[in-house]
Amino acid sequence: MLVVDLSDPPPIGVIGPPGVVVAVGESSSPDGEFWLDTATFALTETQQEDRRFVAVESVEDEVALLAERCERWPHASAVCDDVLRSVDVTGPALPGIVTESLAYSTLQSGPEFARWLAERGPAALPDIPDPVLAERDGGTLRIRFNRPKRHNAFSTDARALLLDALTVALLDDTVTAMVLGGNGASFCSGGDLGEFGTFTDPASAHLARTRHSPALALDELTRRLGRACRAEIHGRVLGSGLEMASFCGWVSCHADAVLGLPELMLGLIPGAGGTVSITRRIGRWRTAYLVLSGQSIDPATALEWGLVDEVSSTGAA
């Protein structure tokens, strides 16, 4: 990780990806603008509307945290930065999701993910019936994650049922609205950690992610329905849960929600389309911060950044 001051002169003769670059200081010169565009993100202790900045309580402490995390997970940190710089948020979702998945599969074959698997040890998965529920209410299709005892951790069977329900909405033009929610204390706490590593072949895992993708279905449904494709989030909204919700045309967030992207601690990056959906909403800089820092944010910050569209005091299941 390289730390630069916004007053530093631009480098000369640099070739290749810049890597993780954290900028600090104030931007009041052409050099500052160069670094704001080049950096992974910039840290500041004052609120900034410019989404290239992230406001933190202590820049010094945050730099130390980021340096420690990038040192522990150097491969995942660098790959995250590469992917986010490659995503074209103005284009269709598919190229970005393919890029993300190829990078994710690469990291699944790497030493950092292997280390996490070894530290986790063997895992047993409970057999939970009906992990996703769908019901029609007139023209509205209501889909709910239904593994409340595991905070709706996202599993392979949940992905299949979610995709089935979304496919119905895509094929049936009498569906005029879709609401995605979660039963119990949380919307979705991310991928079920007990399932990680069950695909021994990363190439097959890539094909499964991209050929059977709820993210692409949600993206297409939002293109058709706009704000009528809605997510209602509460409790833990982490990892793939946040990534999928962000594809929706409108995200309503309960005031109790905790939002974040914890994948780096597994030696991975977001793998459910988040490098596309979240970057579309808040830019690559703040998306990179969420991944690299591992910090969660509250609903007020999420609303300010544009990660959610409204915050309400009602809506938790």
Tally of separate domains: 2
Rounded to the nearest angstrom, the radius of gyration is 19 Å
Average pLDDT over all residues: 93
Strand percent estimate:
15-25%
Q: Tell me the strand order in the biggest sheet.
A: 5-6-7-8-10-12
pLDDT < 50 runs, ≥5 residues: none
Q: N-to-C terminal Cα separation, in Å?
A: 41 Å
| Helical fraction | 40-55%
Largest sheet entry: 6 strands, mixed
- SS-based structural class? alpha/beta
Q: Kindly report the CATH topology of the largest domain.
A: 2-enoyl-CoA Hydratase, Chain A, domain 1
CATH homologous superfamily designation of the largest domain:
2-enoyl-CoA Hydratase, Chain A, domain 1
Number of helices: 11
Please describe the structure with a list of short key phrases separated by commas or semicolons:
about 325 residues, 2-enoyl-CoA Hydratase, Chain A, domain 1, 11 helices, about 15% strand, globular
Produce a short descriptive summary.
This protein is α/β, with parallel strands linked by helices and 317 residues long. It is built from 11 helices and 12 strands.
